[in-house]
Predict the structure.
Amino acid sequence: MYSTFPMGGRPGRHGRRGDRMFPFDAIEDQLRDLTGPRGGRAGRGDVRAAVLALLAEEPMHGYQIIREITERSAGVWKPSAGSVYPTLQMLADEGLVEVAEQDGKKVYNLTEAGRAEAEAASGRPAPWKSAAEQDVPESMVLPRAAMRLVQAVAQVATSGTPVQVRAATDVIDEARRRIYTVLAED
């Protein structure tokens, strides 16, 4: 089990030796070598369409938007803050979103014009679906699932309480046993 910041690591230094995320980053890199690229970068239009679609559901702040796109694409597409926040600013400049301060965060909400644009695009598939539903060769299904598991474990390791870390460890141990059972069934 990982204790708080072993080897002198600090939060926010992902991928560097001494960071408690380092082992997970190394595993993720190895899995990425097996699975190939994550599906490329989304274009500006995809980010714009995704932001409008999400804000049509409810007002959100930038980090929520990034998290939602990442979750809805099953981790295949994680837009950067450097693409989401400029898109939000552009939408505000166009009068499609309005910004309100809430609990010290900027929360974005669609204006009537923004709702109309989101409604006009509602017949098209959501941009995160095309990222998540890429044709994945059968040989890559298991490594990609393993990568998603590593990402979830890393999240628990970095932000979970000791009780949550213990619970996640128990889940992983049980999953390992069940995976070996799959092999034994044949």
